[in-house]
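Structure ticket #2291
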Amino acid sequence: MEFYLNSVNIEEIREIYDWGILDGVTINPTMLAACDDFRAALDTIRSTVPVKLFVQVVSHTTEEIVREAEKLHSLADNIVVKIHTNVAGIAAMARLKASTNVPVCATAVHSVIEALAAAKAGADHIAVFLGLLGEVEERPVWEIVQDIVKTFTGAAVPSRVMTAGRSLQQIVEGFKAGAHEMTCSYQIWKRFLSNAHTRDRWNAFSSDWTASFGSRTWLSE
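Resolution: structure written out below.
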């Protein structure tokens, strides 16, 4: 089980990394398009947190995708190259996995057949985007994750299934359906530990202790 943060905001990344449970950062072209300098933004993240970085290529032809993927991975061993799940992307994944050690994530997957095609091409990670599916599909989003995981397991496919969710429910349902990893925004991460019952119980414990012992703790002499 791996937890990723979807962000290019260095303060957000720093804060979540300090929790001690962050395995990686996922980055997409839309995020980088809002930065003044996409190379500088990536360099800042690379130098700040020693975790996996999922960075997406933006080229359109198979040849250019392969070259861009190789260039990205040459920057650091912890970079996983995200490639869009279309015809040129699938062809590029197959070429990369046949001749290089570049780790690949098939991104923006919205169907079982896309996941199967990406796995066949050798993608190490399959990023299933649950956000839009949750808005336009009538069936529960966890069903597509369950179908992908079940199919991969039956065929002994080693690709890891990642869910990209827009709510706590999507993240939880994804793991319940068998996903290996997830990514979500900083706003969703901040809700992980915001349960009112948990907060109220801590406040009660803290108040009772302070009423009896003031500022003393187990570190006090």
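Closing remark: The longest helix spans residues 196-213.
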